Amino acid sequence: MRTIEDFEALEDMVRELREELAECLMAGMTPARGIGEVEFTFDHPNGDEIICHLEYDAGDPSESERMTLVGAYIGATDVHGLLPFAIIDQIEAEALNEPR
Question: Which end of the chain, N or C, is less surrounded by CB atoms within 10 Å?
């Protein structure tokens, strides 16, 4: 059974993680990729370098392997929601062809 002290400790941990994330964002650092994600640097046609976090799916006999974009950053700014589908498709295709 959890005690109030357990929840207070969790609150402290969350507060520390939020402070650390805020420091990284203020420093212009790209957030770290999640567990199991692959990092890929995409050179956008306009000259921007986009740090991409993707999930790799090896597929099975009925479907081929693929990459799925889950995060895209220019510096500390998340631009994933701003990218057109054509660029997302290009990022996923290029990342799939990169050696892992």
Answer: N
